[in-house]
Amino acid sequence: MSDKLIQMQSIMLKNYLNNMKFLKKYDNALYNRVESLSHDLEKGLIAERYSLELDENKLNIIDVHNKEKLYEMDPYYDALYKVSKFYPNIQNAISLITTQRIEKRRDPKYEVDSFDFINEYTYLINKYKIMDNKKFKEIGKYIFIGTLLGIHIDKLHKKIKAKNYLIIENSLEVFRLSLFFCDYKKISKQSQTTFIVEQDDLEYRMILRRFLKNDSKYNHILKYTVGSNKYTNSLQKLSEIIALENPLLYSFSDYLGAYGRGIEYIKNGYKILNFQKINSVFENKPILYLGPGPSLSEKY
Questions:
Q1: What is the pTM of this model?
Q2: Which of 74, 143, 204, 275 sees the fewest Cβ atoms within 10 Å?
Q3: Contact present, 134 and 97 (Cβ < 8 Å)
Q4: How high is the pLDDT of residue 106?
């Protein structure tokens, strides 16, 4: 084994151990899953699905089952290529800013019609071409779809310096390989980092919602990088779920109407139970609330 290869292995191992130490505090659930996977692989309890190959000084990840290479080119060249293609505009982004008129789903129940407000908003965006070729001064949120070895994540972070990152990887085993090359600890010191690694649909959506909830002011444009063509389905899945979270679909007029009804009840002298005044009566006893709900008017 050459001195260069020995040195490379030493650096990889050091980076892996630093990442694992970081994950143990930052995302303990993910740390435990990686630790368990490493144990099972080392003890031969499960078969290796992906292996790291070094051929003519070029790294690649090999799918053991079908001998397919996950990288289409040298990982370091691939990373530099992705960096060269990055530009801070609306290209390669999931946008929650619609430019299409939204048709009313129903006639408004109240004087305020949220659909009218939204359509006026989209009309102004189109009229003044607000988003056309706009260069962003900063990147609030950035999504990496597929880690592979994570080399491109390191390189892009140095250029982008986004405030928030979402890192998605379908395979825990592939993500584990990225721990040898990508310095997640350093990235997370500078930016809020969220991981979705081989999660079921329910957990996937829960973590994604947390990512969207944090610094939600940046949700209108979500820039992304796809690891390779093999992650096309992952991009489609992400786009579909985020579309359902579009704030423009929020019918705020219904909520304003509901709050308005409460004010009308108070003005008209309805008997309203004031729990602050009766607290001493119930003391620490549990209370069960029963109510007909909004469907009462439809059934009776």
A1: 0.75
A2: 275
A3: no
A4: 53
